[in-house]
Write a structure and sequence with these properties.
about 40% helix; single chain; 4-stranded antiparallel sheet; alpha+beta; globular; about 350 residues; Alpha-Beta Plaits; Ribosomal Protein S5, domain 2
Length: about 350
Amino acid sequence: MIYRSKAPLRLGLAGGGTDVSPYCDLYGGAILNATISLYAYATIELLNEPVVQLEAIDRQETVQYDLTDTLPIDGKLDLATGVYNSIVKTYGKLPSGFKLTTFVDAPAGSGLGTSSTLMVAIIGAFAEWLKLPLGEYDIAHLSYQVERVDLAMAGGKQDQYAATFGGVNFMEFYDGDKVIVNPLRIKPQYLYELENNLLLYFTATSRLSSTIIETQSKNVKEKNQQSIEAMHHLKEQAQMMKEALLKGKVHDIGAILDYGFRYKKQMAQGISNTKMDDIYEVALKAGATGGKISGAGGGGFMMFYCPANTRYSVQQALNNFGGDFRAYQFTQHGLSTWSI
């Protein structure tokens, strides 16, 4: 038997960063995100020998271990070994050796939630194989637990829930790891217009998001008022985006994105840089009404809202920066698993 899964990457449209502790624990966080047709994939193939083979095709990395109770966390495909260790600890020794193969449609550090989405896909493949009694909230929370607690990788909570649930969601984050996912019933024509006008641009750079997030968390712990006030504004931005999408005020979205862009840069040093600021200003001059840096910032993807067919002039204006635009569609489904 072969057991497969796929989970969608996400665009964080508003509220980014307010899902990170300790801010969400102290003040409550809110984020609006939407999953897109770029995915993380995981496949488990059973083997006739007691070994664990791990292969990340996109990273061209392969490792093999004996089928033991605990695999080493040694910087080699730690997301996969972290899931393995958690599954064995909770559900007992696995019945067979296996090969786990993964692939992600976007590079690591791109700002689309790649690592957390891959974590969800890996857990999904194990759940399909072992018939684990895990619901959507269970899978998302387990993914967060392994990545953020067991592996101590800095980051927020939105990516795991977006990848698991799918669709357009308004998410709330509270103390005690409490998360509430509110699916939004947005009229198709509003989503079509958003999809048509929202360009996804890869800056041809990547970054280590954990460094920026650690600085952001430190600012909250040290009561940096500028950083905290910026996060308050971003939480407000999530409410503004929610209302605009539900009421069909799609042409307000550019201004809402711009509002968030200005405040997000105040959260922590390194979120933007000279190149990204230049890209942003050129896009605005070419007709975009707003945009944002995807994920923690510092590199990766940016997005721009381009009404009235200005998407074409924006694309042309950004040609000199060495990046490229990625086609996508919004998706309604989250984690999918199956076996053959």
